[in-house]
Specification:
- The complex is a heterodimer of chains A (about 120) and B (about 110).
- Helices cover about 0% and strands about 45% of the residues of chain A.
- Chain A is mostly beta strands and about 120 residues long.
- In chain A, strand 6 (about 65-70) and strand 7 (about 75-80) form a beta hairpin.
- Chain A is globular.
- By secondary structure, chain B is mainly beta.
- Chain B has strands at about 10, 20-25, 35-40, 45-50, 65-70, 70-75, 85-95, 100, 105-110.
- In chain B, the strands form 2 sheets. In chain B, strands 1, 3, 4, 7, 8 and 9 form a 6-stranded mixed β-sheet that branches. A 3-stranded antiparallel β-sheet of chain B has the order 2-6-5, with no helix packed on it.
- The chains are: A mainly beta (about 120), B mainly beta (about 110).
- The interface of A and B includes residues 44, 58, 105 and 111 of A.
Amino acid sequence: QVQLQESGPGPVKPSETLSLTCTVSGGSISSYFWSWIRQPPGKGLEWIGYIYYTGTTYYNPSLKSRVTISGDTSKNQFSLHLSSVTAADTAVYYCARFPGGNWGYYYLDVWGKGTTVTVSS
Amino acid sequence: QSALTQPASVSGSPEQSITISCTGTDSDIGAYNYVSWYQQHPGKAPKIIVYDVSNRPSGVSNRFSGSKSGNTASLTISGLQAEDEADYYCTSYTTSSTLVFGGGTKLTVL
């Protein structure tokens, strides 16, 4: 059974870059899209973007100028980089699998447990 | 892209039925039958409960059902149970090949 685990360095200072990695176990990252979603404290879910295993990326237009999602098929991992962070980027960050057109399933079917990132000086 | 519109909260008594609406545009809900719904309990990751407007993944109770008309999708929960108290989010695939979430609805079981 596929499992996802988010990891990151911990608190981030304003104006710095937030970097997180999602490790996929129990299956290959090939043939799927891999997504990042976040949830600020007490607020709703926000889709950040996803990457296809070939490297093609799609981003939320509201975050596109600051977001980069990359993948490493050799490590079965994908990563999120969010630049110029502010307190508004404080959130629980989730990674999730999105099967997409190859599989005919257009929903996020497997989720990580999430990791809390705090932006503070 | 703008977030899909959901009511902030709904409530119902045990055994009753409730419906949560999710309104989008011609570029998301109205474009495809790729609307999904997620249930999220406090401190937990979201869980898929309905996909492709009205399909349920294996293991999800048939008390959860979905529908769509035009640019509005709906989630109905019948026979409300205490364990259904949670936040519910709709999502749609868009014509830009992106995803968009609704703002979320808090369900209270009275």
